[in-house]
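ok trying again, last paste got cut off:
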Amino acid sequence: MTEKTKWKTEAHSLFDGDCEVYTTNQSNGVYQIGVWVSVEGKMYRKSLRTKHRETALAKAKTEYISIRSKVDQGKQVFSEDITTVVSRYSLHREDDVKTGIITKQRLGTIRSHLKNMLSYLHGDMKVSDIDRGTFIEYYNFRAKQTEYQVNQETVRQECSTIGMLWKWMYNEGLTTISSDRLEFQKFNRQNFQNDVRRDTFTDEEWKKFHQAMRSYASKKNCRTEEEYYNRQILRNYCLVLANTGMRTGELDQVRWCDIGDYKKIIHETGVSSVVKISVRWKTSKVRKDRVLYCRDSVYFERLSEISNYKTAGDYIFTSFKGNVITARQKSIFWHAVMSLAKIKTADRKLSFYSLRHYFVTQRWKAGVQLRDIANSCGTSVNQIEKTYYHIDEEKMIETAVMDKRRAKVVRGR
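nice, full thing came through this time. structure:
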């Protein structure tokens, strides 16, 4: 059936009028397709890129079947911009927070990762314009964006978040590209090991940091009772992190009811006081309950003496005004102590997470079994091995040069 209108020079109706193939006054003889997509309330138009009628009709039939297939599967025909999609995904993950699937802190991390992704893609970019190779230069972009300060592990985690977004988009019918088909630049394992090595305190740096915290949080260096109170809370916060390997998001949400028995442990070198800590699955990154012990119970004994908020349901790390310690308060404390300790941070990213690195490093060097470290930190043996391979290498070197008769490492002559 051929029809003409004022602006159409030729028109052919297919599939009982649901699809139209036509040329216009402006198309210079090139055929186009028009399909009304009722579920989205929009007219789908596309050039068929041919002036040959039979070819155009054949291509139009294939295009129409593809459109009907998407509609029947509940997938979108019209592509949205990536910013809109990210906003929808963020709302979806908010529901996951309410149901306890992820923590509020994890949602904040996801949003931060996707903000970096949007700066790479440009917010108005259509999802349909993103193909499997779009992210191949993402790591190089992030490196330049941060003046080469970002480490590989940070970018790797961002790529993982992008993959989760794409999996959701694929399931929602917003893209035809599944997450496993996205291509990212391969990471250099040696560089990753170097990042972890750089972002961990040395023994000497930890000694300086420890002394600087004591000085910074001393009464004589605080102007008000509130300032003294908050600094003491944060000082013990850092000490607990370094002696448990807990994640900051987990420790932030520990309440007094999560603290269990205090015990005295007799061992070869003396007596140690330990305290039992229960991590609830709702506050854990891996969504599992676990129990661990802090190597020195004195930190919690000291916190119990300092704190004004000690009922079972109160958070342990609470500010003078009764609120949970904020990210800004942590940042101010951290940078002040680092400055006082005079620890060089050029090309390094020492942070609260470095205290977790330090704990794992010290426990491994002390001969603690990897499985025990992994269980305490709420991670896997495989992850420990991948992240801290350089420590294992150092231990192998020490073993190789061990003088068995004297049972000590020969350092050189």
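cool. The two ends are 97 Å apart (CA to CA). Residues 404-413 have pLDDT under 50 and may be disordered.
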